């Protein structure tokens, strides 16, 4: 699972460059205030432009393995089948098996 970078509101002045770099790399970042989530920084990319905030957020969260397929479909307001189509459009694999696990399942 890809680590979600967390910034405090206070750190933003000193770490603005890190936050921007994350966005350029397509990574989400969580900004907190007094230890509680305040807002989520979602990269402004093709996903966001083409599909809107909900679908872009669901794609980012799913790709980073922060949510399940079912949860991502709900976030995007799509059925699981439609979310699978969206994953396909962005060439994001729906499953992520290590080769040894896949070999074991194919043998069974």
TrEMBL record:
Domain of life of the native organism: Bacteria
Alphabetized Pfam families for the sequence: UPF0175
Family from the record: Belongs to the phD/YefM antitoxin family.
UniProt xrefs under NCBIfam families: phd_fam
Official protein name in the record: Type II toxin-antitoxin system prevent-host-death family antitoxin
